[in-house]
Amino acid sequence: MIRNLLRYPSARAAIVILAVVAMLAAFGPSLAPHDPLAQDSSALLQGPSAAYWLGTDALGRDVFSRLLAGSTVSVLASLLSVSIGMLLGVVPGLLSVFLGKRFEWVSLRLIDALMMLPFLVFAIAMTAMLGNGLTQAMFAVGILITPAFFRVSRAAALSVANAEYIEAARLMGASTASTIRHHVVSKVLPAVAVSAASMTGACLSIVASLTFLGIGVVPPDPTWGGLLATDLSALYDRPFGPIAPALLIVATVWALNALADAMRDAGTQEQRA
Amino acid sequence: MTTLDNVVSLDRRARRAEPADPILSVNGLRIIAADGRELVRDMHFNLPRGGTLGIVGESGSGKSLTCRAILDVLPPGLSVASGSIRYRDVDLSRLDATSWRALRGVELSAVFQDPGSYLNPSIPVGRQLAEAIRANLKMQRKAARDRALDLLGRVGFADATAVYHQYPYELSGGMAQRVLIALAICAGPSLLIADEATTALDVTVQAEILALIDTLRREEGLTLILVSHDLAVVSQVCDHVIVMRSGEIVEAGSTREILHHPKSAYTRSLIDDHAVHPIAVNRPQSADAPQRVPILSVRGLHAGYGIRTVVQDIDLQVAPGEILGLIGETGSGKTTLLRTVLGLIPAATGAIELDGQRIDGLTGKPLRDLRRSGALQYVFQDPLRSLDPDLTIGASIAEGLYLREGRLGVSAIDASVTAALRAVGLEPELSTRLPRLLSGGQRQRAVIARALALEPKVLLLDEPVSALDAVNRLHVLKLLRRLADERGIAQIFISHDLGSVAGIADRVAVLYRGQVVETGPAGALLANPSHPYTRKLLDSAPRLAVAAPATRSLFTVY
């Protein structure tokens, strides 16, 4: 799978970009040349310079340092949503195929109901109820992306549910749990990995949107979306300001989508071989 | 475009007047894989217009690859390394994609083994046929529809209009193959390649399809290449035969010559394998045979799906060490019967006893305990589909052992896996391989090994040799017979192939429309069938026979 993946140029580029983003998320705050919260009242709304690579914002904080420091929150938040969505989606998705008609009906209706909820509005409502924090917001997003994982894993499981080797396992007395563990998980995993990659991209833009709107993050803490918002408000003084955070968001989301596409293509190639 | 013009502008009538020209000539064809392995070596033949050529060989002999090379549809990674393929006066290796589109499906056409996978499941078959006609012959919608209906009639559908509106899933394998044949001849091709076109069908249907291909060939003046692992199938239709093995021509000549005076030992073995092997029939029947207590008995069984009863009033017994052959064509209820015994389908009425215990109607824990005991094992028809593609052979065999005695320990389970592989004649090293890396014969043995590892008392086998070529078939049949004799494993052996059943079964039961119409000792029943249906089954089994006098001496292999 990995070797097949590396045959796609887009996948190679995506992996490089994601490696950089992962480094930023892991070490960003310690790499930052300045304290992201330190204000320098002698340098407000400056353009790029040797001291401040991407210039400073209205409070005299170094934008480059804030971008690096914001990576951790932005990346972790989207990973949190994806993990929640995967956990709540994949397990019921598999069980809906193997656990009988009643569970199938109930779980399908619940997923239908979830799919009706609008992302941003639901996330805003959750933070209104549970308090304004990124964890709450991303928990809400995680619940909202559950249907994607549910449907993907259910479809993959359905395609093998009637396979003869599943019947053979059942004829040897295998329980449902054992059948799923031994025969189904390996068939479902590639599809789930593909949607996890594209969902991480989607969540990243949702985090950016939410933090852009000021939801989930309390002001001094930097995030990519938050930076975009402050930069936009100072567009007259720093017209190039939004470019850096926007570029970072776009590049990461593109990389995740490109990786997901390449994974899917590599997977279908493997099946044919 | 010049080559295309050449192809299209050929005046057929003018061509017919001078039949000396070979319509297809293959010269020194060599096909290699991406890693340089040679898959076909020096394949060569000249096929005159209207000639019929059979290519015979076991799986992997290169017979299908040769056909695919002719149509320029080799699987990815394979390529023609050298040699030439000429159709009339066109060198096919030089054609571009546009010319191929005008040629393939129009002049050169093919029918393959698995008809279902070549039809779009969501479009009625008649419309698919009409679309192909419109695309190939540039006809109006109405005219294409009429031609489609006409073709469906020609390929043997009494009610063409009804079939026209049916979806592929509504057709049986034989019907789907007829539709595929209609598709293949819709543009009036000159050359038809039938690659294992009847292999997946049961004997009565196979005979009908072969007769259809032969009739169409005569009517349309088709040149035919018939590829099969079964020499008997080829000998019924073809004037000339090429026997292939591991990518090379072993022997070639007229059908009569090959059948009566085979030069190579391999061809002789193909002919011998085809003769019914009376292993069982000649065995001394032990005196106490009738008194033996049956290990599995089925009494007055009715079963089916929902309100539809598929099998009725079945009475069967099988004793330890005995093989019961169950024969009948597709839809006769053979598989339903086995699935009912396995508890996959509930029995409506009747009793099923294993070792004196009722096993019908079991559910929940008692059923799971019975299955984990491994006393009753099922061997599926298609070994590739019944093995998890992601698990090694060893892991697949070990699964049942873990389920039965999880605490046994890894080394004990490994020992059992090795013993099971040895028992079926496979190297224990194969246990680390994935199923797709094994040959068809090895896979079938692996599936039998999976059943054997649990030391079953009864083995239920669903067409265990139908997908195998003659050589592997014989090996597996001998293995099954040995398991019955040496380990006393009772077996119910389903097959539509009378040769296989006669070869190893002690007793035979004939199933027709869900009922056992005849039962008795294998030798006596097959030698002297009393029910008309059994006689029909026996008559339609393919036999080695010279089809027609080999008049076309223009065919050359050099």
From TrEMBL, chain A:
<dbReference type="InterPro" id="IPR050366">
    <property type="entry name" value="BP-dependent_transpt_permease"/>
</dbReference>
<protein>
    <submittedName>
        <fullName>Peptide ABC transporter permease</fullName>
    </submittedName>
</protein>
<dbReference type="InterPro" id="IPR000515">
    <property type="entry name" value="MetI-like"/>
</dbReference>
<feature type="transmembrane region" description="Helical">
    <location>
        <begin position="134"/>
        <end position="152"/>
    </location>
</feature>
<dbReference type="InterPro" id="IPR025966">
    <property type="entry name" value="OppC_N"/>
</dbReference>
<feature type="transmembrane region" description="Helical">
    <location>
        <begin position="239"/>
        <end position="260"/>
    </location>
</feature>
<dbReference type="Pfam" id="PF12911">
    <property type="entry name" value="OppC_N"/>
</dbReference>
<feature type="transmembrane region" description="Helical">
    <location>
        <begin position="110"/>
        <end position="128"/>
    </location>
</feature>
<keyword id="KW-1003">Cell membrane</keyword>
<keyword id="KW-1133">Transmembrane helix</keyword>
<keyword id="KW-0813">Transport</keyword>
<keyword id="KW-0812">Transmembrane</keyword>
<dbReference type="GO" id="GO:0055085">
    <property type="term" value="P:transmembrane transport"/>
</dbReference>
<feature type="transmembrane region" description="Helical">
    <location>
        <begin position="188"/>
        <end position="219"/>
    </location>
</feature>
<dbReference type="InterPro" id="IPR035906">
    <property type="entry name" value="MetI-like_sf"/>
</dbReference>
<dbReference type="GO" id="GO:0005886">
    <property type="term" value="C:plasma membrane"/>
</dbReference>
<feature type="domain" description="ABC transmembrane type-1">
    <location>
        <begin position="67"/>
        <end position="260"/>
    </location>
</feature>
<keyword id="KW-0472">Membrane</keyword>
<feature type="transmembrane region" description="Helical">
    <location>
        <begin position="12"/>
        <end position="32"/>
    </location>
</feature>
<dbReference type="Pfam" id="PF00528">
    <property type="entry name" value="BPD_transp_1"/>
</dbReference>
<feature type="transmembrane region" description="Helical">
    <location>
        <begin position="75"/>
        <end position="98"/>
    </location>
</feature>
<comment type="similarity">
    <text>Belongs to the binding-protein-dependent transport system permease family.</text>
</comment>
UniProtKB/TrEMBL annotation, chain B:
<keyword id="KW-1278">Translocase</keyword>
<keyword id="KW-0472">Membrane</keyword>
<dbReference type="InterPro" id="IPR017871">
    <property type="entry name" value="ABC_transporter-like_CS"/>
</dbReference>
<keyword id="KW-0547">Nucleotide-binding</keyword>
<dbReference type="Pfam" id="PF00005">
    <property type="entry name" value="ABC_tran"/>
</dbReference>
<keyword id="KW-0067">ATP-binding</keyword>
<dbReference type="InterPro" id="IPR027417">
    <property type="entry name" value="P-loop_NTPase"/>
</dbReference>
<dbReference type="GO" id="GO:0005524">
    <property type="term" value="F:ATP binding"/>
</dbReference>
<dbReference type="Pfam" id="PF08352">
    <property type="entry name" value="oligo_HPY"/>
</dbReference>
<dbReference type="InterPro" id="IPR050388">
    <property type="entry name" value="ABC_Ni/Peptide_Import"/>
</dbReference>
<keyword id="KW-0813">Transport</keyword>
<feature type="domain" description="ABC transporter">
    <location>
        <begin position="24"/>
        <end position="271"/>
    </location>
</feature>
<protein>
    <submittedName>
        <fullName>ABC transporter ATP-binding protein</fullName>
    </submittedName>
</protein>
<dbReference type="GO" id="GO:0015833">
    <property type="term" value="P:peptide transport"/>
</dbReference>
<dbReference type="GO" id="GO:0016887">
    <property type="term" value="F:ATP hydrolysis activity"/>
</dbReference>
<keyword id="KW-0997">Cell inner membrane</keyword>
<keyword id="KW-1003">Cell membrane</keyword>
<dbReference type="GO" id="GO:0005886">
    <property type="term" value="C:plasma membrane"/>
</dbReference>
<dbReference type="InterPro" id="IPR003439">
    <property type="entry name" value="ABC_transporter-like_ATP-bd"/>
</dbReference>
<comment type="similarity">
    <text>Belongs to the ABC transporter superfamily.</text>
</comment>
<dbReference type="InterPro" id="IPR013563">
    <property type="entry name" value="Oligopep_ABC_C"/>
</dbReference>
<dbReference type="InterPro" id="IPR003593">
    <property type="entry name" value="AAA+_ATPase"/>
</dbReference>
